[in-house]
From TrEMBL:
GO BP, one annotated term: double-strand break repair via homologous recombination
Membrane-spanning residues: none
Gene encoding the protein: Cni-T27A3.6
Source organism, top-level taxon: Eukaryota
Protein name: Phorbol-ester/DAG-type domain-containing protein
Gene Ontology CC, one term: nucleus
GO MF term list: ubiquitin-protein transferase activity
Region feature Disordered, mapped onto this chain: 316-381
Length: 381
């Protein structure tokens, strides 16, 4: 088929819109003068395009390092707003204290309007936190933390996945902030968190990608800062008597191994909070806020080594079952006529674990009383 008649005459290629584009020549014309920290800090106090750029980055990465947030903001405002060379901001000298001040200013600006809490609804909230086992600070973008259902809304979880998530969270809080994949695979066989193995692996991968969990190794799952930030109100409401609270920041302790513990009153504080307090006070020791016992930084480091070796963990659920058994035994002493009934209650309470509990072993000394009850019931019939 001949299309020569349909072709327009004098066809020429479209000219290049900007001729030859030389990036190096463009960058050579930009100023390389480093902006001062005071100028960057002043810019961080007023919400503008650089803050919107940060929010867009948080949509892609809900939890990022605090230093990374500072670098993204400084680079965007120096290149886009001030027209400086992309590497100019790297020449700005900032101390660790100034870096923390810039982070707090950015978080406050994105959370508030002119220093006041936003009256209009905004679907974000930024919180500075740590993973409790390292001094690295993270900034987490979350929704309204007053409602724990934000987890299912933000992550598009099904009913079974949400039940599994809360069961894993409760297990982590009962242990040392970690959970074994073998335990997770054992509980997904029962309701209300019954899902298939491949679906479970896909769920865990998605939650790790969204920074709710950290896959430490193929068999260990660690709790992530985003989980504590978003579900702190839910944890305080459901486990009020079992949570450990830091004496410095008054936040939940999810990794009890990495804590400073008073040897007298056994009050706990985050290792990072304790270390920051020693830096601010310019000394290597601090006094307990409850009993005035002195605790040095070297002693805290030794405590962490011992706890990591012995695997110290706090188990509120087990303590709860223990208190139930003690209360039942006290009733047994006060009422001799109901001995067998109380013994039966103790056995049943230990053999009916919740959905997120490991199945405990029945106590040998209680089993005979149960068999006696069964035999007495059969004789009566």
């Amino acid at each position: 088929m001949d299309l020569s008649d349909d072709e327009p005459a004098n066809v020429t290629d479209d000219p290049t819109p900007h001729d030859d584009f030389d990036l190096h020549s463009v960058l050579a014309n930009l100023s390389t003068e480093a902006p001062t920290f005071e100028k960057i800090l002043r810019a961080s106090t007023k919400f503008h395009d650089s803050h919107r750029y940060l929010i867009n980055q948080f949509l892609l990465e809900p939890t990022m390092m605090r230093k990374k947030m500072n670098l993204l903001f400084a680079k965007h405002i120096s290149t886009v707003a001030w027209g400086l060379h992309p590497e100019a901001f790297m020449r700005t000298q900032i101390t660790p204290e100034q870096s923390g001040e810039l982070s707090r200013s950015l978080v406050k600006t994105m959370n508030t309007t002119d220093g006041a809490v936003k009256k209009d609804f905004r679907p974000w909230r930024f919180v500075i936190s740590t993973d409790e086992k390292s001094p690295t600070e993270y900034v987490t973008m979350t929704g309204c933390t007053r409602n724990s259902s934000i987890i299912s809304e933000a992550s598009s979880l099904t009913k079974s996945e949400r039940a599994l998530f809360l069961a894993i969270l409760e297990e982590m809080m009962c242990e040392d902030g970690t959970c074994k994949m073998s335990w997770i695979h054992s509980i997904i066989q029962k309701e209300p968190h019954k899902i298939t193995g491949p679906k479970c692996d896909e769920f865990m991968t998605r939650m790790a990608r969204q920074k709710y969990f950290t896959l430490f190794n193929p068999d260990i799952v660690e709790i992530a800062p985003r989980t504590i930030v978003e579900l702190e109100p839910w944890l305080r409401a459901t486990m009020p008597g079992s949570l450990k609270i830091c004496e410095f920041c008054r936040r939940i302790i999810s990794r009890p191994i990495y804590t400073a513990e008073c040897g007298k009153c056994h009050s706990l504080s985050h290792f990072n909070c304790f270390k920051n307090a020693t830096v601010l006070s310019k000394q290597d020791r601090m006094e307990c806020s409850k009993c005035n016992e002195t605790l040095t930084l070297d002693e805290v480091n030794d405590q962490i080594v011992i706890k990591r070796t012995s695997g110290v963990a706090r188990v509120p659920s087990r303590n709860l079952r223990q208190s139930t058994s003690i209360r039942a035994r006290s009733e047994d002493k006060s009422d001799n006529d109901d001995n067998d009934v109380v013994a039966k209650i103790e056995v049943d309470s230990d053999e009916e674990p919740g959905p997120s509990r490991r199945v405990p072993k029945a106590r040998p000394q209680v089993r005979p009383s149960k068999r006696a009850i069964i035999s007495s019931d059969s004789d009566a019939n």
